[in-house]
Amino acid sequence: MARASKVPLKELRRVVIAASVGNIIEWYDFYIFGSLAAILAVKFFEKGHPVAAFLSTVAIFSVGFLIRPLGAFVFGWLGDRVGRKYTFIVTLTGMGLATALIGFVPTYQSIGLAAAFILFALRLIQGLCLGGEYGGAITYVAEHIEDEHRGYYTGWLQTSPTLGIVVSLGVIIGIRSYLGFDAFQDWGWRLPFIISLLLVAIAIWIRLSLGETPIFQDMKARGRTTTNPWREAFMSANFKYVVIASVVVLGQGCVWYSGQFWALFYLQSVKKLDVLTSSWIIALALLIATPTLIFWGWLSDKIGRKPIILGGMALAALTYYPLYSALGVYGDPKTLNITMAVIIVAILVNYVGMTYGPIGAFLAEFFPGRIRYTSVSVPYHIGNGWGGGLVPIVTTAAYAKAVEAGSSNPLFWALLYPIGIPTIMFLISVFTMPETRKHSIWEEGAIEATRAKAKA
To answer: Residue 277 in 3-state DSSP?
Structure first.
């Protein structure tokens, strides 16, 4: 099989940058929707209409996350059959077009209920495309890197979702500050979506200059690509490993969304901090803590993926309550301390770095090349799309219910989900998650042989 040493360092850097730029833009597209959810709810839905109210709830809070595993199934199949490069170009194109079109859709006031259905459909396309993007990007990068440095280089790629959030917040802050509140609420909110066209065009141009991965090229030349990725991934012994990976990613995904997204929801929806200030706090904390993704990915090359990923889950579960209690004090408009709030969120994001930094290397090393795109994509989007994606709505709803019930400590009830899921997945993973650091993806049959040896 092809060897990683044939990939020059300059080319390797280009691969990582190209994959990361596309990933940043794709996550920007996905998160710009959530960042402007409050405005979209006003512009596209009539709360008094029962169908519109239902679509509002599902579209804004759920469908983009829940549909992601389906996108992983579809594009994972394509990536293992046709190739990594062109599949994640397709997903990037689809995401960019769907996002840009949101900026042109007439409002409910103009076309009635049709506006809600169109927005719902475009959010579906966003979720489907994102479901195929990550597996392609991580597989593409991993299949260029020698075994000894996979955690470090995929750690760079892992920064792209976080940077995608930063870019989305930065664009919103910039446009809103320039136009003013009234103009932004009236029409300026469309600009962050429309800007996606330019960003995606740049990313596609960069990605088109890349070649296919050495491993996929070698498999194709030997006639050893899979004919049915779904059957090999989910109707064989490999299904057991898909389940194990899903358990690990459920814990990781919950930590990721709890440490970044619910921090934003908490400041805005619970503490009632204004959008601009809360966006600045999250953006600054993300910029400070994003390098932890690279650091923990690098360290996983030295000591292993398992102890770092599980360590991040354990620390998150043990410290979320005191950290969010402190954030509630320093992020409250009456007792606002921006510096302390940024530090607390940065600590939360460091846990994201521990769980998310090494996860790409772990997933790539856990599955054989023939079905890697499919096998990486599906567990990832089950864990992050379902386990993590539900964090903002579950925690916010739990907090509101606790307040309504007269609880003296609603934060405790809100954090049951973010603490409980990582705790349960940690306990299961301690016994089921293998260490993959020494799994070679460059030696044909090496992963299967390692699995057989472990089973024996």
So the answer is: helix
